[in-house]
């Protein structure tokens, strides 16, 4: 059975390697596109479709993943650097391997006392998202009778830091806003609740098997590691029970967060394009499993994680639409576990696909769909008659939900969108 599973996965991987032209081209243009959810936020070249005549923006409901951060745990850094230091002392590192060792030491030093904390890259990301929201829909924040902004954050430090950067920028642009920021475990329960239990444990075993097999097969080339090591058989001997392929994957994974940091290093420059591509494809399977949907994992996170968050969007919008409401914005700050499940549940364009994990990179590349700072904004518009339209932005770009017809262009009638959202909440 195990041999059969491995053969099937190997065949899938071969197909992946030979048919992934768009992803491979993305790696060529920017090797760090292999970083998946470790990729820094990319500012889109967006444009706005003019709202139907008579409709003006008056309310925004937002969810933003924290910005670029340091790695949350550095135990693998310590292990891999210990191995690289040993290999260096034995003369087993090439010039490229030595350069990688030095870069990883610089990265490890930068992490000292900062694990999981927002970097200045992340601070600038949320300042920019806030500034651009004001630039395109500033009328929302200049209403005389609507000045209240409610912000809620996961209690994890990087999320609170992201909220602070976003709100400080917004307050500077519109000093008269009445901003309230709340954080604590009660907010994390709906901002980034994570599924657990026997079903989750079973799926974890499935995805581990898929990613392990993909890693083993994709790094199986005899050329793997030759740019880093002088004697690969000797390296394998020192690694002992740790597979060489998994060691390569781990080195690439740690290197992948480099562009989120506040230091100038380029560890990916020491790997070959094929090694980076192999890592990107294998890691994308894991990212897709964790933050979207797949044939193997189904809709587990859609319902367990996405529904509580979607209910919050509905409830807060209902409150904001009351005639006596003074609220102009609901701003949420959380994690990839929250925003990914939300976008997957409502099935915005791109998140409406259900690929196999091995081929997820073809239709759902993580660097594009769940980078640092990933965000979704529902911008509400109203005319003098009180009719309400909504435009959806994903990472600041106009998007739609293919399952729901729009009213005009990217604009939905709120009553239609709300009915659809409510139907999704009946799944659990």
General description of the model:
- The structure is a single chain.
- The protein has 428 residues and is α/β, with parallel strands linked by helices.
- The protein contains 16 helices and eight strands.
- Strands 1, 2, 3, 4, 5, 6, 7 and 8 form an eight-stranded mixed β-sheet that branches.
- Helix 5 packs parallel to helix 6 (157-173).
- The longest helix has 21 residues, at 198-218.
Describe, in short, the structure shown.
Helices cover 50% and strands 12% of the residues. The chain is an alpha/beta fold and 428 residues long.
What is the secondary structure topology, with strand pairs?
Layout: H1 2-19, H2 21-29, E1 56-65, H3 75-89, H4 95-111, H5 120-137, E2 148-153, H6 157-173, E3 178-183, H7 185-191, H8 198-218, H9 232-239, H10 244-255, H11 273-291, H12 300-320, E4 327-334, H13 336-346, H14 360-363, H15 366-369, E5 375-382, E6 388-394, E7 397-399, E8 411-413, H16 414-424
Parallel strand pairs: 1-4, 2-3, 2-4
Antiparallel strand pairs: 1-5, 5-6, 6-7, 6-8
Number of helices: 16
- Structural class designation: alpha/beta
Amount of beta strand: 5-15%
Radius of gyration, whole Å: 23 Å
Q: What is the strand tally?
A: 8
Distance between the termini: 34 Å
Main sheet overview: 8 strands, mixed
Quaternary status of these chains? single chain
Pattern of helices and strands: HHEHHHEHEHHHHHHEHHHEEEEH
Give the uncertain stretches in residue-range form. 1-21
Q: Label the overall shape.
A: elongated
Mean pLDDT: 91
* Helix percentage range: 40-55%
């Amino acid at each position: 059975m195990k041999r059969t599973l491995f053969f099937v996965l190997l065949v899938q991987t071969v197909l992946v390697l030979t048919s992934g032209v768009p992803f491979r081209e993305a790696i060529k243009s920017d090797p760090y596109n292999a970083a998946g959810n470790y990729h820094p936020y990319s500012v889109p070249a967006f444009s706005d479709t003019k709202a139907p005549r008579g409709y003006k923006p008056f309310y925004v409901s937002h969810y933003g993943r924290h910005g670029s951060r340091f790695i949350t745990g550095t135990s693998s850094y310590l292990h891999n650097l210990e191995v690289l230091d040993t290999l260096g002392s034995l003369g087993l590192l090439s010039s490229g391997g030595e350069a990688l060792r030095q870069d990883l030491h610089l990265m490890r030093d930068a992490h000292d006392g900062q694990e999981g904390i927002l970097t200045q890259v992340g601070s600038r990301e949320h300042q920019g998202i806030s500034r651009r929201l004001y630039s395109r829909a500033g009328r929302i924040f200049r209403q005389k009778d609507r000045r209240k902004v409610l912000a809620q954050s996961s209690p994890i430090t990087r999320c609170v830091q992201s909220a602070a950067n976003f709100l400080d920028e917004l307050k500077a642009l519109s000093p008269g806003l009445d901003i309230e920021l709340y954080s604590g475990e009660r907010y994390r329960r709906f901002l980034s609740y994570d599924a657990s239990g026997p079903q989750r444990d079973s799926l974890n075993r499935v995805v581990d098997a898929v990613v392990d097999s993909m890693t083993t097969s994709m790094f199986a080339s005899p050329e793997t590691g030759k740019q880093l090591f002088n004697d690969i058989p000797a390296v394998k001997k020192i690694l002992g029970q740790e597979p060489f392929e998994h060691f390569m994957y781990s080195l690439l994974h740690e290197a992948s967060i480099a562009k989120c940091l506040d230091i100038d290093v380029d560890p990916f420059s020491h790997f070959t394009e094929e090694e980076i591509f192999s890592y990107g494809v294998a890691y994308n399977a894991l990212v897709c499993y964790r933050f979207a949907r797949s044939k193997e994992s189904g809709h587990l996170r859609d319902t367990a994680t996405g529904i509580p968050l979607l209910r919050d969007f509905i409830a807060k919008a209902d409150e904001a639409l009351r005639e006596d409401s003074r609220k102009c914005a609901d701003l949420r700050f959380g994690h990839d576990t929250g925003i990914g499940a939300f976008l997957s549940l409502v099935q915005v364009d791109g998140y409406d696909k259900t690929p196999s994990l091995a081929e997820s990179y073809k239709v759902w590349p993580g660097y594009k769909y769940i980078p640092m700072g990933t965000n979704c904004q529902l911008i509400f518009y109203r005319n003098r008659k009180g009719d309400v339209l909504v435009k959806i932005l994903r990472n600041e770009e106009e998007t739609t939900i293919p399952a729901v017809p729009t009213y005009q262009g990217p604009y939905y009638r709120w009553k239609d969108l709300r009915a659809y959202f409510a139907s999704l909440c009946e799944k659990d």
